Amino acid sequence: MKGKYIYLICICFVLIVLCGQTYAGSADLTINNYGIGFGNSKKLNGIRINLKDHHVREVNGFNLTLWAPGKNKRLTMNGVAIGVYGQSANIFRGISIGGISIGGGNINGIALSGIEIDADDINGIAFGGIGLSARNIRGIVISGVGMSLSYVDGIAISGVGMGEGDIDGLAVCGLGMGIGKLRGVAIGGLGMGTGDVEGITISGLGSGHNNFTGVCLSGLGMGTDDFTGIGIAGLGFGSTNFKGLGMAGLGIGANNISGVVIGGIGAGAEHINGIAIGGLAVGAKNMNGLAISIGVVGGQNIDGVSIAGLGIGAKEQKWLSLAGGFIVGSKIDGVSIAGLGIKGYDLNGIKIAPYCHAKDQMIGVSISIINIAENLKGLQIGLLNFAGNNKAPFKLTPLFNYHK
Length: 404
What we know:
By secondary structure, the chain is mainly beta. The chain is about 5% helix and about 75% strand. The protein contains 1 helix and 30 strands.
Protein backbone atom coordinates (compact mmCIF):
# COMPACT_ATOMS: atom_id res chain seq x y z
CA MET A 1 0.00 0.00 0.00
CA LYS A 2 2.77 2.40 0.87
CA GLY A 3 4.43 1.68 -2.46
CA LYS A 4 1.25 2.57 -4.33
CA TYR A 5 0.98 5.91 -2.51
CA ILE A 6 4.59 6.71 -3.23
CA TYR A 7 4.08 5.78 -6.87
CA LEU A 8 1.00 8.03 -7.10
CA ILE A 9 2.83 10.93 -5.52
CA CYS A 10 5.69 10.55 -7.96
CA ILE A 11 3.29 10.57 -10.90
CA CYS A 12 1.63 13.73 -9.56
CA PHE A 13 4.95 15.41 -9.13
CA VAL A 14 6.06 14.54 -12.65
CA LEU A 15 2.79 15.87 -14.05
CA ILE A 16 3.17 19.11 -12.12
CA VAL A 17 6.71 19.59 -13.34
CA LEU A 18 5.83 18.79 -16.93
CA CYS A 19 2.74 20.94 -16.92
CA GLY A 20 4.57 23.76 -15.20
CA GLN A 21 6.95 24.03 -18.11
CA THR A 22 4.26 25.92 -19.96
CA TYR A 23 1.75 28.31 -18.45
CA ALA A 24 -1.03 26.88 -20.58
CA GLY A 25 -0.56 23.21 -19.81
CA SER A 26 -2.50 21.15 -17.29
CA ALA A 27 -3.57 17.55 -16.70
CA ASP A 28 -7.01 17.60 -15.11
CA LEU A 29 -9.09 14.75 -13.78
CA THR A 30 -12.34 16.70 -13.91
CA ILE A 31 -15.95 16.64 -15.07
CA ASN A 32 -17.31 20.12 -15.88
CA ASN A 33 -14.30 21.64 -14.10
CA TYR A 34 -14.98 19.62 -10.92
CA GLY A 35 -12.25 17.31 -9.70
CA ILE A 36 -8.44 17.34 -9.45
CA GLY A 37 -6.15 19.42 -11.59
CA PHE A 38 -2.38 19.19 -12.10
CA GLY A 39 -0.70 22.14 -13.75
CA ASN A 40 -1.86 25.58 -14.77
CA SER A 41 -5.62 24.92 -14.86
CA LYS A 42 -7.40 28.16 -15.73
CA LYS A 43 -10.62 27.25 -13.91
CA LEU A 44 -11.16 24.45 -11.44
CA ASN A 45 -13.49 23.42 -8.62
CA GLY A 46 -11.82 20.99 -6.27
CA ILE A 47 -8.12 20.31 -5.72
CA ARG A 48 -5.54 22.05 -7.86
CA ILE A 49 -1.75 21.57 -7.73
CA ASN A 50 0.60 23.59 -9.89
CA LEU A 51 4.22 24.62 -10.16
CA LYS A 52 3.58 28.24 -11.17
CA ASP A 53 0.22 30.00 -11.50
CA HIS A 54 -0.14 32.30 -14.47
CA HIS A 55 -3.27 33.87 -16.01
CA VAL A 56 -5.51 31.71 -13.84
CA ARG A 57 -9.15 32.84 -13.73
CA GLU A 58 -10.95 30.98 -10.93
CA VAL A 59 -10.25 28.29 -8.33
CA ASN A 60 -12.84 27.06 -5.84
CA GLY A 61 -11.52 24.63 -3.27
CA PHE A 62 -7.86 23.92 -2.57
CA ASN A 63 -4.94 25.37 -4.52
CA LEU A 64 -1.27 24.45 -3.99
CA THR A 65 1.44 26.37 -5.84
CA LEU A 66 5.10 25.50 -5.56
CA TRP A 67 6.87 28.43 -7.16
CA ALA A 68 6.58 32.20 -7.57
CA PRO A 69 3.29 33.15 -9.25
CA GLY A 70 3.04 34.96 -12.54
CA LYS A 71 0.38 37.50 -13.48
CA ASN A 72 -3.07 36.60 -12.20
CA LYS A 73 -4.99 39.86 -12.46
CA ARG A 74 -8.32 38.08 -13.08
CA LEU A 75 -7.94 35.25 -10.58
CA THR A 76 -10.64 34.70 -7.97
CA MET A 77 -9.54 32.21 -5.31
CA ASN A 78 -12.27 30.80 -3.04
CA GLY A 79 -11.17 28.34 -0.39
CA VAL A 80 -7.66 27.46 0.78
CA ALA A 81 -4.63 28.64 -1.18
CA ILE A 82 -1.10 27.63 -0.26
CA GLY A 83 1.93 28.95 -2.05
CA VAL A 84 5.24 27.42 -1.06
CA TYR A 85 6.87 30.51 -2.54
CA GLY A 86 3.91 32.85 -2.74
CA GLN A 87 0.37 33.65 -3.84
CA SER A 88 -1.08 36.13 -6.31
CA ALA A 89 -4.74 36.77 -7.14
CA ASN A 90 -7.23 39.50 -7.78
CA ILE A 91 -9.61 38.24 -5.10
CA PHE A 92 -8.90 35.89 -2.20
CA ARG A 93 -11.81 34.45 -0.21
CA GLY A 94 -10.89 32.04 2.54
CA ILE A 95 -7.40 31.14 3.73
CA SER A 96 -4.28 32.17 1.88
CA ILE A 97 -0.76 31.11 2.91
CA GLY A 98 2.44 32.24 1.23
CA GLY A 99 5.91 31.12 2.20
CA ILE A 100 7.46 34.39 1.04
CA SER A 101 4.74 36.69 -0.27
CA ILE A 102 1.05 37.21 -0.96
CA GLY A 103 -0.02 39.81 -3.48
CA GLY A 104 -3.37 40.73 -4.86
CA GLY A 105 -6.32 43.04 -5.05
CA ASN A 106 -8.76 41.97 -2.36
CA ILE A 107 -8.09 39.58 0.50
CA ASN A 108 -11.18 38.37 2.35
CA GLY A 109 -10.52 35.96 5.18
CA ILE A 110 -7.13 34.95 6.56
CA ALA A 111 -3.77 35.65 4.91
CA LEU A 112 -0.41 34.47 6.29
CA SER A 113 2.93 35.23 4.68
CA GLY A 114 6.46 34.49 5.82
CA ILE A 115 7.81 37.80 4.52
CA GLU A 116 5.32 40.20 2.99
CA ILE A 117 1.73 40.90 2.02
CA ASP A 118 0.87 43.48 -0.64
CA ALA A 119 -2.82 44.02 -1.35
CA ASP A 120 -5.36 46.67 -2.20
CA ASP A 121 -8.04 45.73 0.33
CA ILE A 122 -7.93 43.34 3.28
CA ASN A 123 -11.08 42.20 5.04
CA GLY A 124 -10.24 39.78 7.82
CA ILE A 125 -6.90 38.79 9.36
CA ALA A 126 -3.50 39.23 7.74
CA PHE A 127 0.02 38.52 8.98
CA GLY A 128 3.26 39.49 7.24
CA GLY A 129 6.46 38.18 8.74
CA ILE A 130 8.41 41.30 7.72
CA GLY A 131 6.15 43.74 5.90
CA LEU A 132 2.54 44.44 5.05
CA SER A 133 1.12 46.97 2.63
CA ALA A 134 -2.53 47.63 1.88
CA ARG A 135 -4.88 50.38 0.85
CA ASN A 136 -8.01 49.61 2.90
CA ILE A 137 -8.10 47.25 5.87
CA ARG A 138 -11.09 46.05 7.85
CA GLY A 139 -10.04 43.55 10.46
CA ILE A 140 -6.70 42.68 12.05
CA VAL A 141 -3.28 43.08 10.42
CA ILE A 142 0.07 42.19 11.97
CA SER A 143 3.57 42.76 10.63
CA GLY A 144 6.84 41.68 12.16
CA VAL A 145 8.77 44.76 10.99
CA GLY A 146 6.95 47.43 9.00
CA MET A 147 3.54 48.36 7.69
CA SER A 148 2.22 50.81 5.10
CA LEU A 149 -1.50 51.56 5.14
CA SER A 150 -4.03 53.95 3.66
CA TYR A 151 -6.99 53.19 5.92
CA VAL A 152 -7.59 50.77 8.81
CA ASP A 153 -10.90 49.92 10.43
CA GLY A 154 -9.82 47.47 13.11
CA ILE A 155 -6.44 46.56 14.61
CA ALA A 156 -2.97 47.16 13.17
CA ILE A 157 0.16 45.84 14.93
CA SER A 158 3.71 46.33 13.70
CA GLY A 159 6.95 45.20 15.32
CA VAL A 160 9.01 48.23 14.26
CA GLY A 161 7.29 50.94 12.24
CA MET A 162 4.00 51.97 10.71
CA GLY A 163 3.33 54.70 8.15
CA GLU A 164 0.62 56.64 6.37
CA GLY A 165 -3.13 56.32 6.41
CA ASP A 166 -6.07 56.87 8.72
CA ILE A 167 -6.94 54.47 11.52
CA ASP A 168 -10.27 53.71 13.16
CA GLY A 169 -9.50 51.27 15.93
CA LEU A 170 -6.21 50.18 17.51
CA ALA A 171 -2.68 50.75 16.25
CA VAL A 172 0.36 49.31 18.05
CA CYS A 173 3.95 49.81 16.95
CA GLY A 174 7.20 48.67 18.57
CA LEU A 175 9.19 51.80 17.69
CA GLY A 176 7.45 54.62 15.85
CA MET A 177 4.50 55.43 13.63
CA GLY A 178 3.43 58.21 11.33
CA ILE A 179 -0.26 58.13 10.47
CA GLY A 180 -3.05 60.43 9.35
CA LYS A 181 -6.28 60.70 11.29
CA LEU A 182 -6.77 58.49 14.33
CA ARG A 183 -10.11 57.53 15.86
CA GLY A 184 -9.29 55.00 18.55
CA VAL A 185 -6.09 54.01 20.34
CA ALA A 186 -2.48 54.29 19.18
CA ILE A 187 0.55 52.95 21.07
CA GLY A 188 4.12 53.66 19.97
CA GLY A 189 7.13 52.20 21.74
CA LEU A 190 9.21 55.31 21.06
CA GLY A 191 7.31 58.01 19.21
CA MET A 192 4.45 58.85 16.90
CA GLY A 193 3.19 61.58 14.65
CA THR A 194 -0.46 61.86 13.64
CA GLY A 195 -2.95 64.17 12.05
CA ASP A 196 -6.20 64.74 13.92
CA VAL A 197 -6.89 62.42 16.86
CA GLU A 198 -10.07 61.36 18.61
CA GLY A 199 -9.09 58.78 21.19
CA ILE A 200 -6.03 57.70 23.17
CA THR A 201 -2.33 57.84 22.27
CA ILE A 202 0.57 56.39 24.27
CA SER A 203 4.23 56.85 23.32
CA GLY A 204 7.43 55.90 25.09
CA LEU A 205 9.29 59.08 24.13
CA GLY A 206 7.39 61.76 22.24
CA SER A 207 4.39 62.44 20.05
CA GLY A 208 3.16 65.17 17.73
CA HIS A 209 -0.43 65.74 16.60
CA ASN A 210 -2.55 68.24 14.72
CA ASN A 211 -5.87 68.53 16.56
CA PHE A 212 -6.32 66.21 19.51
CA THR A 213 -9.42 65.15 21.46
CA GLY A 214 -8.99 62.47 24.09
CA VAL A 215 -6.12 61.22 26.27
CA CYS A 216 -2.45 61.62 25.37
CA LEU A 217 0.37 59.98 27.38
CA SER A 218 4.02 60.51 26.48
CA GLY A 219 7.21 59.43 28.22
CA LEU A 220 9.08 62.63 27.37
CA GLY A 221 7.14 65.26 25.45
CA MET A 222 4.23 66.00 23.16
CA GLY A 223 3.14 68.81 20.88
CA THR A 224 -0.29 69.56 19.39
CA ASP A 225 -2.21 72.31 17.68
CA ASP A 226 -5.61 72.25 19.40
CA PHE A 227 -5.90 69.89 22.37
CA THR A 228 -9.05 68.88 24.27
CA GLY A 229 -8.83 66.21 26.95
CA ILE A 230 -6.09 64.88 29.23
CA GLY A 231 -2.40 65.20 28.40
CA ILE A 232 0.42 63.80 30.51
CA ALA A 233 4.11 64.05 29.55
CA GLY A 234 7.26 63.05 31.40
CA LEU A 235 9.05 66.28 30.47
CA GLY A 236 7.16 68.87 28.44
CA PHE A 237 3.86 69.60 26.75
CA GLY A 238 3.21 72.23 24.11
CA SER A 239 -0.06 73.21 22.45
CA THR A 240 -1.59 76.08 20.57
CA ASN A 241 -4.99 75.88 22.27
CA PHE A 242 -5.39 73.63 25.31
CA LYS A 243 -8.65 72.58 26.99
CA GLY A 244 -8.73 70.02 29.77
CA LEU A 245 -6.12 68.60 32.15
CA GLY A 246 -2.40 68.78 31.41
CA MET A 247 0.51 67.49 33.46
CA ALA A 248 4.24 67.58 32.64
CA GLY A 249 7.37 66.78 34.61
CA LEU A 250 9.08 70.00 33.52
CA GLY A 251 6.77 72.47 31.85
CA ILE A 252 3.59 73.17 29.91
CA GLY A 253 3.25 75.93 27.34
CA ALA A 254 0.36 77.06 25.15
CA ASN A 255 -1.17 80.12 23.58
CA ASN A 256 -4.52 79.58 25.26
CA ILE A 257 -5.23 77.33 28.26
CA SER A 258 -8.71 76.50 29.56
CA GLY A 259 -8.75 73.95 32.34
CA VAL A 260 -6.08 72.66 34.69
CA VAL A 261 -2.34 72.50 33.93
CA ILE A 262 0.45 71.32 36.21
CA GLY A 263 4.13 71.75 35.38
CA GLY A 264 6.89 70.37 37.56
CA ILE A 265 8.97 73.48 36.88
CA GLY A 266 6.63 75.89 35.14
CA ALA A 267 3.45 76.60 33.22
CA GLY A 268 3.00 79.45 30.79
CA ALA A 269 0.51 80.73 28.23
CA GLU A 270 -0.78 83.82 26.51
CA HIS A 271 -4.17 83.33 28.16
CA ILE A 272 -5.07 81.04 31.08
CA ASN A 273 -8.65 80.37 32.17
CA GLY A 274 -8.73 77.87 35.00
CA ILE A 275 -6.01 76.50 37.26
CA ALA A 276 -2.26 76.69 36.61
CA ILE A 277 0.29 75.13 38.94
CA GLY A 278 4.04 75.45 38.38
CA GLY A 279 6.86 74.24 40.59
CA LEU A 280 9.01 77.33 40.02
CA ALA A 281 6.88 79.68 37.95
CA VAL A 282 3.49 80.34 36.40
CA GLY A 283 3.25 83.04 33.77
CA ALA A 284 0.54 84.39 31.48
CA LYS A 285 -0.36 87.59 29.75
CA ASN A 286 -3.95 87.23 30.93
CA MET A 287 -4.85 84.88 33.76
CA ASN A 288 -8.34 84.15 35.05
CA GLY A 289 -8.68 81.62 37.83
CA LEU A 290 -6.12 80.12 40.19
CA ALA A 291 -2.33 80.26 39.86
CA ILE A 292 -0.03 78.47 42.31
CA SER A 293 3.76 78.31 42.36
CA ILE A 294 6.49 77.65 44.89
CA GLY A 295 8.49 80.29 43.07
CA VAL A 296 6.78 83.17 41.27
CA VAL A 297 3.53 84.01 39.51
CA GLY A 298 3.75 86.65 36.81
CA GLY A 299 1.65 88.17 34.08
CA GLN A 300 0.09 91.28 32.68
CA ASN A 301 -3.43 90.83 34.01
CA ILE A 302 -4.37 88.45 36.83
CA ASP A 303 -8.04 88.08 37.71
CA GLY A 304 -8.56 85.50 40.43
CA VAL A 305 -6.38 83.88 43.08
CA SER A 306 -2.57 83.91 42.95
CA ILE A 307 -0.41 82.03 45.44
CA ALA A 308 3.39 82.13 45.23
CA GLY A 309 6.18 81.09 47.56
CA LEU A 310 8.48 83.93 46.48
CA GLY A 311 6.57 86.64 44.71
CA ILE A 312 3.78 87.81 42.42
CA GLY A 313 4.20 90.37 39.69
CA ALA A 314 1.54 91.65 37.30
CA LYS A 315 0.49 94.92 35.80
CA GLU A 316 -3.06 94.45 37.10
CA GLN A 317 -4.16 92.09 39.87
CA LYS A 318 -7.67 91.41 41.18
CA TRP A 319 -9.27 89.43 43.99
CA LEU A 320 -6.71 87.55 46.12
CA SER A 321 -2.90 87.51 46.06
CA LEU A 322 -0.78 85.58 48.56
CA ALA A 323 3.04 85.63 48.40
CA GLY A 324 5.84 84.64 50.73
CA GLY A 325 8.00 87.48 49.38
CA PHE A 326 6.82 90.52 47.42
CA ILE A 327 3.69 91.43 45.49
CA VAL A 328 4.29 94.10 42.84
CA GLY A 329 2.19 95.61 40.09
CA SER A 330 0.72 98.77 38.63
CA LYS A 331 -2.81 98.21 39.93
CA ILE A 332 -3.52 95.71 42.69
CA ASP A 333 -7.17 95.25 43.70
CA GLY A 334 -8.70 92.98 46.32
CA VAL A 335 -6.96 91.24 49.19
CA SER A 336 -3.18 91.05 49.07
CA ILE A 337 -1.00 89.40 51.70
CA ALA A 338 2.79 89.29 51.38
CA GLY A 339 5.59 88.04 53.63
CA LEU A 340 7.94 90.93 52.76
CA GLY A 341 6.19 93.73 50.94
CA ILE A 342 3.52 95.06 48.56
CA LYS A 343 4.39 97.73 46.05
CA GLY A 344 2.35 99.31 43.26
CA TYR A 345 0.94 102.51 41.81
CA ASP A 346 -2.72 101.93 42.68
CA LEU A 347 -3.58 99.71 45.66
CA ASN A 348 -7.26 99.02 46.32
CA GLY A 349 -8.76 96.76 48.99
CA ILE A 350 -6.99 95.15 51.92
CA LYS A 351 -3.19 94.97 51.98
CA ILE A 352 -1.23 93.11 54.65
CA ALA A 353 2.58 92.99 54.62
CA PRO A 354 5.60 94.25 56.60
CA TYR A 355 6.02 96.95 53.96
CA CYS A 356 3.30 98.53 51.81
CA HIS A 357 3.98 101.27 49.28
CA ALA A 358 1.35 102.87 47.01
CA LYS A 359 3.20 105.15 44.59
CA ASP A 360 -0.02 106.83 43.49
CA GLN A 361 -2.97 105.99 45.74
CA MET A 362 -4.14 103.58 48.39
CA ILE A 363 -7.90 103.01 48.66
CA GLY A 364 -8.95 100.73 51.50
CA VAL A 365 -7.06 99.32 54.47
CA SER A 366 -3.30 98.81 54.65
CA ILE A 367 -1.79 96.90 57.58
CA SER A 368 2.00 97.01 57.64
CA ILE A 369 4.97 97.93 59.75
CA ILE A 370 5.65 100.71 57.26
CA ASN A 371 2.80 102.15 55.18
CA ILE A 372 3.48 104.63 52.37
CA ALA A 373 0.80 106.15 50.15
CA GLU A 374 1.12 109.29 48.04
CA ASN A 375 -2.67 109.57 48.15
CA LEU A 376 -4.65 107.78 50.85
CA LYS A 377 -8.37 107.11 50.82
CA GLY A 378 -8.86 104.83 53.74
CA LEU A 379 -6.96 103.56 56.76
CA GLN A 380 -3.31 102.75 57.45
CA ILE A 381 -2.38 100.66 60.49
CA GLY A 382 1.30 100.20 61.38
CA LEU A 383 4.39 101.42 63.15
CA LEU A 384 4.93 104.26 60.66
CA ASN A 385 2.18 105.50 58.34
CA PHE A 386 2.71 108.05 55.58
CA ALA A 387 -0.14 109.69 53.65
CA GLY A 388 1.10 112.29 51.17
CA ASN A 389 -2.29 113.93 50.74
CA ASN A 390 -2.71 114.64 54.48
CA LYS A 391 -1.80 118.04 55.83
CA ALA A 392 1.11 118.43 58.22
CA PRO A 393 1.61 117.22 60.87
CA PHE A 394 -0.56 114.25 59.84
CA LYS A 395 1.40 113.16 56.80
CA LEU A 396 3.54 110.78 58.91
CA THR A 397 1.95 109.30 62.00
CA PRO A 398 2.59 106.32 64.28
CA LEU A 399 0.12 103.46 64.84
CA PHE A 400 -2.40 104.55 62.22
CA ASN A 401 -3.26 107.18 59.64
CA TYR A 402 -6.53 108.04 57.93
CA HIS A 403 -7.82 110.10 55.04
CA LYS A 404 -11.40 110.23 53.91
